[in-house]
Amino acid sequence: MVVGKMKFTFQKRVKLAQGLWLLSWLATLGGAVTFTLGCFLKTELRRRGEVMDNTDIHCVPNTLMIVGLASMGINYFASRICQDALDPGRFPRWKTFLKPYFGCSVFFTTLMLISVILSYAMKGSLETSLKIGLKNGIRFYKDTDTPGRCFQKQTIDHLQMEFQCCGNNDYKDWFEVQWISNRYLDFSSKEVKDCIKSNVDGRYLVDGVPFSCCNPSSPRPCIQYKITNNTAHYNYDHQTEELNIFIRGCREALVNYYMGLMNTIGAVVLSVFLLQSSVLASVRLLQTSMEAVAGQENVEIETEGYLLEKGVKETFMEYVDPVLKLLLLNQVTPPEAKPEAGATGTTTTTS
């Protein structure tokens, strides 16, 4: 069953080729935009790689960069094809090239759609990665003298100030870790001794947060120590009063930032995908309508164009079968070599 069958006069073929030329260059620009967005997202993810536990989310920008480059190449050849389509003498030279061209185009166009789906579906993986990464970042905040963790404090402080957040889930995460290094603690102080003895792990845990959690918009000077002690501050109740530190956790802030970024990129790439699909369909219609002109004296005859000569399933199998046969041939082990004549035989004994 022929899919997408249409009739084309000579004028329609000319208009199709001219429109396709413009469309292919727009799609080439779209491919460049896709590649640029992939590079930008990759850079943003690498900037905060220290607070991420894994790099699974990097599959999104990597895919975007690949399909962006592929799209530019595919649409460049599409513009060359539509130029030659206006000359029946030059178009036949593309005949052997078009089948692998359509195979590659369908593959990378599908990959572009997959990248759009991934940009919306990676929220769970991103959240898990940030949850573990931020937890470790807060735990190693005090290790400014430890090789490999020297800049962890600087990273967390910049992160909390830039995104106006505090802690992993919220500011109370800082109450559960010792974020002040021992080198800055006076162990002769009774307060320090009592604080260390008050927990079984021997850590200096306080109900306080780093300075980077302070909200500069608050009219009151920042209360970053003894946050839960109402008697330590004048006219203060931490349960009823709005605290002058950031309340939102950094995991929520980063997930919202990256998902907003990827959702926007996904919408742009989806538009490029639709444009790319239009180019692919137009090239196919132009090819099939021009095949009937080959060998004809009158090149202005009316011809028919179609998207698929057979059904979707039959066309898919037509492309897949050669690949499967090639794989099967590679898996077949060569037969064992037959022994040469005279190499084996019975031994006779002479008396």
Please tell me about this protein's structure.
It is a single chain. The chain is an all-alpha fold. It is built from eight helices and two strands, in the order E-H-H-H-H-H-H-H-E-H. It has helices at 10-47, 59-85, 95-121, 123-139, 152-163, 190-197, 250-291, 312-331; strands at residues 6-8, 303-305. It has a two-stranded antiparallel ribbon with strand order 1-2. Helix 1 (10-47) packs antiparallel against helix 7 and helix 2 runs parallel beside helix 7. The protein starts with 5 loop residues before the first strand and ends in a 20-residue tail after the last helix. Its main location: membrane. It is a multi-pass membrane protein. InterPro entries: Peripherin/rom-1, Peripherin/rom-1_CS, Peripherin_LEL, Tetraspanin/Peripherin, Tetraspanin_EC2_sf.
Short description:
By secondary structure, the protein is mainly alpha-helical.
In which order are the strands of the major sheet placed?
1-2
- What string gives the helices and strands in order? EHHHHHHHEH
Kindly state the mean pLDDT as a whole number?
A: 83
Number of helices: 8
Q: Calculate the terminal CA-CA distance, rounded to whole Å.
A: 82 Å
Q: Which radius of gyration do the C-alpha atoms yield?
A: 33 Å
Which class do the helix and strand fractions yield?
mainly alpha
Topology, number of strands: 2
Tell me what portion of residues adopts beta-strand conformation.
under 5%
Sketch the major β-sheet. Answer: 2 strands, antiparallel
Q: Categorize the overall geometry.
A: elongated
Q: Helicity range of the residues?
A: 40-55%
Low-confidence stretches: 342-351
Pfam families: Tetraspanin
GO biological process, one term: visual perception
GO cellular component, one term: plasma membrane
Transmembrane segments: 20-41, 62-78, 98-121, 255-275
